[in-house]
Design goal:
alpha/beta; Rossmann fold; 10-stranded mixed beta sheet; 10 helices
């Protein structure tokens, strides 16, 4: 995960020919992963009219994705989704749609909501603040970034609880009355910082029954105390090298420090029964709908194809939530050797599972 903050760096390409080639690859990637979801349900989406949270900045923009036609004699679990560090968009449309097509509701949370009382200038200011990247250029910047990350994760986890509270008390007038999520079966997931929001929300509120983290460092109280709920982490390889840890480049050094802490944290999580899927050669952006592969990675072959990555994310995410929210087992989540890495059915991926609670 050492490229977490690099996700926001501009990439300078010295050759116009290389720029054209990279653009062509990006277009090709988007076409390859644009197939329809595999589930039996069509997908509808509606804004969720979450009340303003007094004093909080920025406010959350929430949309509810739901299966259609939902059967009137059945209810379906609810998942809440958060995206990466800025939180200004959705990084995993394909995964959201895949889960909804298989009978899940998904409430996606973005920032900032553009309130009627907000001026265009205030909205742009909030947007610009959110899009400021993580800064590891010095020890002072590193400590400031950690403080900001903890604050963002805590605020967004509180917003997750507010979404759940609101859905418990209200039904949206623009959604059919038969379309009601089962609020006793609630999970939460996210990419990058959104994955940390998922674990923090579980620490904050036991109504969240399962958490999925897509290649994100954990922050805030969940790191210090751990969480009791089932937890799936899907990531690239993030064990840092000694050279990274000793580097005089602060950016490289502090990334390695955080990777080392994450490695230790996840070893402890697995002992508590968590699951870790590692995808070899996966870059941070591979866990989104818009992988950004530099031309050197394409030439060396150190890439994961978008279609293969999508199959991994879709399959493990669905299997995990199916087991914990629908009581449906899956061979993907079974192992005869707990606490040991085993090969996944998907090439380039390994699976490590802690002892399953009885």
């Amino acid at each position: 995960m050492s490229s977490t903050h690099k996700w926001y760096r501009p990439i300078a390409i010295g050759s116009g020919l290389c720029a054209i080639a990279v653009s062509a690859v990006a277009i090709f990637n988007s076409l390859r992963v644009s197939s329809a979801p595999s589930g039996p349900f069509a997908i509808k989406v509606s804004p969720l009219n979450l009340p303003t949270n007094p004093g909080a900045q920025p406010q959350a923009l929430v949309r509810l994705w739901y299966p259609s036609p939902a059967k009137s004699n059945r209810s379906y679990p609810l998942l809440i989704y958060f995206s990466s560090w800025p939180g200004t968009g959705i990084d995993n449309y394909h995964l959201i749609r895949e889960l909804v097509s298989h009978g899940y509701y998904v409430a996606s949370v973005e920032y900032p909501a553009q309130l009627q009382s907000m001026s265009a200038l205030d909205y742009e200011r909030q947007l610009a603040q959110l899009q400021q990247p993580m800064d590891f250029s010095s020890e002072t910047a590193y400590l400031r970034t950690i403080q900001m990350a903890n604050e963002r994760v805590r605020q967004r986890a509180r917003d997750a609880v507010r979404v759940l509270d609101y859905l418990t008390l209200h039904h949206q007038p623009n959604i059919p009355p038969t379309v009601l999520p089962d609020l006793d079966r609630v999970g939460i997931f996210g990419f990058s910082l959104g994955g940390a929001v998922a674990s923090q929300a579980c620490w904050l509120d036991q109504r969240f029954k399962a958490a999925l983290n897509l290649d994100g460092w954990d922050w805030a109280d969940a790191v210090e105390h751990g969480i009791a709920q089932p937890y799936l982490f899907i990531s690239g390889t993030f064990t840092p090298s000694a050279a990274d840890l000793k580097s005089t480049d602060p950016d490289r050094h502090f990334n390695a420090v955080l990777d080392q802490a994450a490695d230790e944290y996840w070893r402890n999580n697995i002992l508590r029964g968590a699951i870790h899927v590692t995808v070899t050669n996966a870059d941070h952006s591979d866990f989104t709908d818009a992988p950004k592969h530099g031309w050197r990675r394409w030439l060396t072959g150190k890439t994961v194809s978008p279609s293969h990555m999508r199959a991994i994310l879709n399959s493990y995410s669905k299997a995990f939530f199916d087991y914990h929210l629908k009581a449906q087992d899956s061979p993907l989540l079974k192992t005869d050797t707990p606490n040991q890495a085993v090969k996944s059915p998907f090439a380039g991926a390994t699976l490590e599972i802690g002892p399953r609670p009885q």
